[in-house]
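Lab notebook: predicted structure, single chain.

Context: the supervisor wants predicted structures on file for every construct in the current expression panel, including those that have not yet been purified. This is the next one on the list. No modifications to the sequence; it matches the entry in the shared construct table.
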Amino acid sequence: MTVLPRPLIALAAVFLFLLVAAPASAAVCGDTITEDTTLTSDVLGCEGTALVVTGDGVDLDLAGHKVQGVLVLNEATGPVIHGGTIEGGIAARFATGAVIRDNVIAKGGAGILFGRGSDGTIERNLIQDNGVGVQLDHGGSTLVKLNLIRRNDTGLGVGIGSEAHVVGNVIADNLLRGASLTQTTAVFTWNLIARNGGAGVGAEDANVTLEHNRLVRNGGAGVQFAGAGPFTVLWNVADRNGGDGIDLSAAAPGAQVTGNHTWFNGGLGIDAAPGTTGSRNWAKHNGDARQCVNVSCSTKGKPKK
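Prediction complete. Output recorded below exactly as produced.
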């Protein structure tokens, strides 16, 4: 057996590393990225599109750099965008399995837009100062997890044809609604939704489940659902909102409302539509002395079973 000298072994290891490492790139406005790439400098001053990512499994490591302009994901499968600042937002079209992770995303019409045919995971980002922080429309199922979504006009929008699983986010200090849902399916768990100008979560004609969220100090209702559901509201805290804690007065019959804590709201703790089911809700110290209507709740002691 022939044994290579140690210097040749070391040289071979370096060569192998260079083969598999993502190429470093001094990208410029308008570049199209089709392979794993690590930025080596900022991409500044782009008007409209800054960079386009397309192809299969492309990993774009921003490496702490700033991109000014829209970062476009176009007909991409499994792209990963991480580790930098995007001023202008990310727009995805026919991008499936996209991962947007560990970025600061600001100053866009939409901070992140998953449009037609797009879905994936949006996690651990700071998304602020956009028209809408995250917008999902006409796509697949997307996980929105552990983000701080603040100071946008609307925090999160989910529209026709998309499905959202919203877990462990802080959605706060947005000008209008914290989250706005229309003709969609969405599940919210363990989120803090606070100090938004309108409702914490508002939905029309949607299939929505809220479970174990805190919806506090919003300018409108903590929860405001209308139209066809189904709507399921379980074990949430909806306190100190400007309107009702939970407003389902314009929702179709059949909503399930159980185990919610609704104190110190400007209106009712719970304003439910006739035909709402549920129990073990607790409504106290709200602006409307009735505390809750059309659903079982305790207004003095601990919630009744």
